[in-house]
Amino acid sequence: MKQAIKIGFIGGVVEILLSLVGMVEAFSQRDIIANVISMGHTLLFIVAFFMSYLAAKRTPHGTLRVLANSFISGILISGHLVLLVMVGGLINLRKVFINASPMLYNLLTFGMERDTGSLLLLLLGALSGLLGGLFFLAPSMLRRVLLTSLGSVVVAGVLQDLLRPTFALWGPLAVINEWLFTANGLTIQGTIGLTILIASFFLFWSRKGKAIQTGFRRLPPAPQRIIKVTSILILVFILLLLPQVLGLFLSEVFTIVGLYVLLGLGLNIVVGYAGLLDLGYVAFFAIGSYAVAVLTSPELGFFSLSFWEALPFAILFGVISGVLLGIPVLKMRGDYLAIATLGFGEIIRILVLSDFLRPWFGGAQGIGKIPKASIGGFEFTGPQQIYYLILAGCLLVAFVSLRLRDSRLGRAWMALREDEDVAQAMGINLVATKLLAFATGAGFSAISGAIFASKLASVYPHSFNVMISINILCVIIVGGMGSIPGVILGAAALVGLPELLREFAEYRLFVYGAALVAMMLLRPEGLWPEPVHRREFHEEGKEEGLESSP
Amino acid sequence: MNILTLKRWKERVTPTDVIMWFIGGSLLLLIFWGSTATLAAGTYTAHHWFDFVIFGLAQGSIYALIAMGYTMVYGILRMINFAHSEVFMSGPYTAYFIAAAFHSSGFLNQYPIPSLIMIFLVSMATSTLVAVLLERIAYRPLRTAPRLIPLITAIGASFFLQYTFRGLYGSGFQAYPVVKILEGEWVLGEFRILKFQAMVIVAAAILMAALYSFVQRTRVGKAIRAVSEDKETSALMGIDIDRMIVTTFVIGGMAAGAAGVLYALMFKQVHFFMGFIPGIKAFTSAVLGGIGNIPGAMMGGIFLGLVESVGPSLFLDGLGIVAPYQLKDAIAFTMLVLVLIFRPTGILGERLAVKKA
Asked: What is the chain B residue with the closest CA to A536?
């Protein structure tokens, strides 16, 4: 009971916050299911549902008690919203909270009179609470089926603006559009169809999936390998085909994700392998970009090399600056290192921005007219072509870092990460190992920067601020430190998803921040951790558990 | 010096040391050269230098106040509280609405002292609330997690808070009302001093003295210091660790909230992104002074403020660099790198040097 009230209170505060931040109102312009439920209401419902589920979960026993608790928390949550509507009716909250508009109150009361609407809101809150409780009581199989199928309906609804044009590219398959979507939201038959489709697929996989997996394991090694190789080949084939299938916008998103994968793989060596916390990583990205810009752009008129001639220089400058940064910070550890590298990154940005170096780097206006890269007449112009350049870079860098990880140097890095003093005692040359980590990471970043410069055809100092370094760090930690597939997944989640949801740009970083916190609280080892790391996290947890219970 | 010690000394010096000294030495030479050139050229009068110093002191004491939060949290939890810049922002942004209301009703200029006190209290309360919530929701479950996890959480919380306040209060710049008694200047002999700058310096000094003596003199302060020294032992001594950590966040939040109002009064505007740059500068100050060390943070902040305001004209003008003021941040960060080269643990950070920072 106490728990239910507490959870209801927290949920209510969350819903008020979501309303006042303006998310509910902004999301209400989009329907998940046409003329049935809007995204804003879905958001409120999901919060109420989830919190009541939590309340049910925290209830010790008894079906009735579970339902009572989830009911209470549901009604409390919507009670907060009713309170907001009432207070908003009495005083003008808009003087402080700009989003406390009449439109919001209208939405919260479903466009009805204030009193009847509030009553309905309370009832619906109680209903979603009860649903949360029932969901908790349902058998786990049903729970998972419902979660995946309804989840995919929500995803399809949220991404509708993206899916529609993509389907439209597919010739005969474009019929899907008419069946599934209206101009705003899913159709009703589409919703039902999608739910049934996903649910049956999920049921099939959970019945048969295990059998397929064990069947694969039972095969002798030779065919297993053939299957693996063919699946990798198919994957590469799909990757090659993607930009043609997905159209311009999605290809653009893929190129951005690809650039972050490149950067992430580089930083992964510095932070993930060698454990050196580098917050100024964007500096090398900038150096790579500016090297290509200065060497190729006719605007400055110093040189006019082609992209491919400039690329080695870009990498070289990146590596040299990596070593130059590495030397002064060799003796620093942990957070001192972090702040010194952050300072270094800022120094680079401020220098290229300044009027003092303007003749060389173009100052605040940057450098334009950077020629595109081309191979034998094939020019990497738009995102659909640059994609291949980036894909090649990613594959190369992923391969190199995979081989480095398993090399003597890679093991030295990991020893360094675990314990510097012990590593030194084991005869690892700290200076050389650290500098190599900085240099390799910087080289990868410079490659990424070079491609970035040729992609945009211009460079500006403002593209290289601290936020990029921080974003890359988040990518590798959310993906799972030291793990290459983790970096790719992290970049897709932290860079790709927000790009896809551009139309909600105002709330992108709001959700991003909340997701980052939630992720670190619930799954600190990352989305796709290295096996060793995962074990570490779980062992630590176990040991603590033992210590705390004598 | 006999030959044996010389030999030993030779063995201990590595090539990297030599390179570092070379870098540091040449930078120092450059600074010296630039300063003498500037002073010899005499572009700036004593009045200019006095203005630079006062501005630097005002700016620096704001940095110092924010840096206290960073350094105390670092001392007790060994984590960079990246979201502290949002703790700093939340206070003055919320207090803005009080200030604006006071201003439009004329109360602000009729009773300036009580209304300023109100503004400070609201700002400090908001910042403290945000800091405490941050600790409770985001950091407490992560006490035993590896070092990078709380850092990422803090970054996430920072984004979340920025955009929460953006959503709540809007994305535009809000002009902070002008307080009449803080306008104008005092004349001290030959020098003039802007009133609001003097107020910032004095208020910051009082606050710092109060917070410092709280940490040094009271029982709670002693307990906080004990917890940052050794958590387990202080738990055995009967100190409630959770409460001490919350108290640390409260102190940091109060200092940041006060610093926020000073900042808003000095630059006359608030914005949801206003915390970012001062936050990074304050963290730099904390590192400059030796992180985990409260007097160090104060010194670091004031040092950074002075370098930023005096540095561009003093060091760079004489070298014939165009628009040296654009490079003030570069100077600040170069100072940081210099200090870290010669004293890798910051100006006052001896105690932590031994431990793994």
From this structure: B146
